[in-house]
Each structure stands twice: as C-alpha cells, then as structure tokens.
Amino acid sequence: MIIAAEVGDIRRFSSARKLASWAGLTPTVRGSDRTVRYGHISKHGDPWLRWIMNQAAQTAKRTPPYAACFEQIAYRRGRKIATIAVARKLLTHAYHVLREVDAAQQQKEPCTTA
C-alpha cells in the first residue's frame, strides 16, 4: 500500500525500468566515445520510495527468492550494491502487481451510459 501511495497512478510508467529510474534505483551512466562508466544510483525521484524499497530489501535478501540474487551480486560487487539490486527487483515485482490490479479494476468498472 505504501508503494502504491508513493507512486500514485501506475499507468504513467510504461515499464518497470522507467519506474525504477523515477525512484532513483538505477545507476548513473557516464560515457565518452566507446567508454561507458556506471556510477552510484541516480537518486532522482522520491526519496521516501527509495528508503521504503531499501528497507524491504534488507529483509528480502534473507529469503530464498532473493537470497541467491543477493549472494551472486554481493560476491562480485559488494553487499550495498547487492541490496540496491534486490530493492530494484522488489520494485519491479511491485510494478507488475500494481499493473495487474489496475487492469482488474478497469475490467470491473461498469460502463455508464448517459
């Protein structure tokens, strides 16, 4: 419910990637010619949503669906980066759930004729 309240109308995001970018859970990209460097998370968007997803990831990284993903990334990149990756994965799943709920609500609305 908190995610839905912070995001608002989910239909304004055409993909989960755009929602993650809006929330500031995507890395900054700097490039020149053929060189591309990825930096810290962008921190654009809603700081409350970013905090909520980070707190949820702290718990989710201990559960089986997310633990394997967390351990793989933590081994290669570090625990903090892995936690943000789990937060983004959680936000992606939340996006798809909210889209399905929105679609179901639109189907239930009766047609009104004037």
From TrEMBL:
It comes from the Bacteria. One of its GO terms (biological process) is DNA transposition. InterPro entries: Transpos_IS110, Transposase_20. Residues 3-67 form the Transposase IS116/IS110/IS902 C-terminal domain. GO terms for molecular function: DNA binding; transposase activity. Pfam families: Transposase_20. This is Transposase IS116/IS110/IS902 C-terminal domain-containing protein.
